[in-house]
């Protein structure tokens, strides 16, 4: 069965976006990006409307930008190739290559997709999608990048999520102050703890 893995950056006080949805507080770190990339081997991305439109406005162009850093172009090319599963009740079409639009039944569609052939499914951002899948028992792993900043207020990643025990698979700190945490939902396979200092 395919796994659903969430990757999100959060502040130390648990917000994945500012009150107005801004993410300008992210602390870029190529070392962190490489480590996160090594943890996940997805071939599909699950998006809500807001995150899809944000990604679509940047990544296709980054792949063609000769002035973009090599790592950014690599990530852009990987995203272009991946299947994008977009869940929205308001979008009428999606134009980014390899994108599929779903207007209803998030839970039912993800259950079917998890049973099919392919690699893991990853979620970037999309807090509402994460909450719905977590409460339906469809989340398998969480990769959380804790950024050394306290926002004081913002959009909570786990607001309205049912209680769920997580098992730590890996914790890794970086010189930038970022900390990468990798968790598995407790009832999804065995625990393999790996803590790197």
Quick overview:
This protein is α/β, with parallel strands linked by helices and 197 residues long. The protein is built from 5 helices and 11 strands.
CATH superfamily: Dihydrofolate Reductase, subunit A
Helix segment count? Answer: 5
Order of helices and strands: EEHEHHEEHEHEEEEE
Number of distinct beta strands = 11
Query: What portion of residues belong to β-strands?
Result: 25-35%
Looking at CATH, which topology would you report?
Dihydrofolate Reductase, subunit A
The quaternary state of the protein chains shown equals single chain
Low-pLDDT parts are 189-197
- Which range best describes the helical content: under 10%, 10-25%, 25-40%, 40-55%, 55-70% or over 70%? 25-40%
Name the descriptors.
Dihydrofolate Reductase, subunit A; about 30% helix; alpha/beta; disordered C terminus; single chain
């Amino acid at each position: 069965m395919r796994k659903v893995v969430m990757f999100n950056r959060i502040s130390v006080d648990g917000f994945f976006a500012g009150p107005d949805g801004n993410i300008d507080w992210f602390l870029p770190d190529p070392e962190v990006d490489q480590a996160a990339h090594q943890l996940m081997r997805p071939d599909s991305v699950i998006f809500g409307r807001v995150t899809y439109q944000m990604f679509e406005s940047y990544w296709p162009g980054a792949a063609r930008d000769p002035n973009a850093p090599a790592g950014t172009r690599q990530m852009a090319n990987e995203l272009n190739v991946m299947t994008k599963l977009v869940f929205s009740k308001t979008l009428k079409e999606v134009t980014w290559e390899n994108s599929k639009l779903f207007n209803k039944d998030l839970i039912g569609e993800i259950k079917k997709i998890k049973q099919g052939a392919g690699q893991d499914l990853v979620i970037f951002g999309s807090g509402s999608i994460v909450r719905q899948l977590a409460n339906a028992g469809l989340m398998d792993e969480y990769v959380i990048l804790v950024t050394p900043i306290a926002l004081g207020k913002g959009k909570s990643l786990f607001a309205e999520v049912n209680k769920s025990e997580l098992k730590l698979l890996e914790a890794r700190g970086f010189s930038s102050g970022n900390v990468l945490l990798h968790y598995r939902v407790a009832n999804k396979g065995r625990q393999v703890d790996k803590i790197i200092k």
